[in-house]
Amino acid sequence: MNEKQLRALAESECAYLNDDNVIKIRVAAQEDNAMARTCLTLLADWAKKGSITKIICTGSFGYYDLEPMVIIEKPGIAPIIYACVTKEVIDQLIRDYLEGDNPRPDLAYCTLGSEGVQGISSEAELQLFQLQKRIVLRHCGMVDPENVSEYIAGCEGYSGLVKALQMSPADILEEIGRSNLRERTGLGCPTAAQWTRFLEEKASEKVVICNTLDNDLHARTARLLLAGDPHSVLEGLLIAAYTVGASQCLVTIPAGFDRIKNLLMTALAQMKEYGLLGENIFDTGFSCDIEIKEVPGSMLAGEETALLRYLEGKQAIPFVQTKEYQPELHGKPVLINHAETLANMGAILQKGAAWFTGFGTADSAGTKIITLTGDVVHPYTVEVPMGTPLETMIHKIGGTLGSSAIIAVQFGGPTGTYLDAEEFKLPITYQTLRFIGSVMGFGMLEVVADCRCAVEMTAQLMAFLHSQSCGKCVFCREGTLHIADILKDITQGEGTAQDLELIQELGEKMRTGSICSFGQSAANPVLSSLKLFGSEFDFHIRQKKCPHRRNGKEV
Asked: Top-level CATH class of 454-550?
């Protein structure tokens, strides 16, 4: 099958996308949203009565407290989003809008696109949309993740791959280099440099791995992508494989995520049916297959060396990386990229490097997916241009809780550094985060309000980090254990001034003595917490109680 045949097949399968007589209704939510299932049932029952309607179940937009979201697109009218939809709202929309002409502005959230509807705000007028630039998440909430035809016909899907297959690997690397794309997790290694080194590897067989393990229980980046737009990730994975000369790809997912696994298996089956996997893709001589591998859902399992050990049937524990270290799987060279990084590839090749560098900063081009958590009104997953200040994320997207003041944030996940209010104006870039001793990580932004006890918060976090340690390193294993125990003693009124000195010493030893990035960064939270909230630690030790509690209750 060639590209022309691919497009024709997809368009025939999704003729409703361009049919002006069809009402298109999308229901967007996370997989476990019971009300979304109710909405789908009610709408399907109504559609059976004879209306020309296509009902599409999509993934989440990432605006969790607005779900389920229902998007109604009637012929000749801009699509309208309705948020927090209930059974009663569906009944009213069926009666007044689907069977009538009243779009119910009082129930609407906004319209999509440049055309408006009287009495309803457009997306361009809402701060949530104004502050974002959705490149990686561009299709989430709008495309059926189980239908490759929709991705191809409605989203120009796999056109980035088609363009790549018409280019030489050197030309692709040059384009990616001009885009200044960097790995979207960890320290942010330049993608073109990483791929170039791997292309130069002399081996008859190479493997590319798409790592979808988010190292934080609250992280949603990979989960949102795979549940809402898996083909953007898989397209990027194929572009990577072609560029570096690999014919085997793996997608590693956390064990137990059955919905994600089933979606990916469906996607791979459809790709084979469309000639996007297997031998001689698009008659170019490029052959590639993709496998799904389940791995433990722990922080350590996502660390490169631990991940490779597990895939080889060994225990998922890291090992020391020497200067000569080259990642291998069963003796084959391996390239590992995160799902967010790969999902940029199709857009970059479609629209060009100059377009991509029009967002972000010179040091950090493009966008970053951020998940807000902690003491915020809206715990959203959004995509903002690199360089967006932390305070914009906190106040304009997350929103503060009542009269609470925000006293700190933790960026980058559980091992990230706590930052105080003076640093909220800092832009989200690789250079800035490196300067303040933090990392991009998985884009987690935990917001801390003044109603929280910093000592208890840090104690709970260090206990969690100890539970995630593989135990191989003495410094990491014993350091996290003893720090967690000391902090627990302090919260129970049994701490001493010498404890703080011991915590500081243990934290410094962990940074220099641990063999992997987890152990080296696991002390970041406690050391930065001591620096920011030293007076709270002192109060606990001197007064033997928490300044945030009275009679055992939160103040």
From this structure: mainly alpha
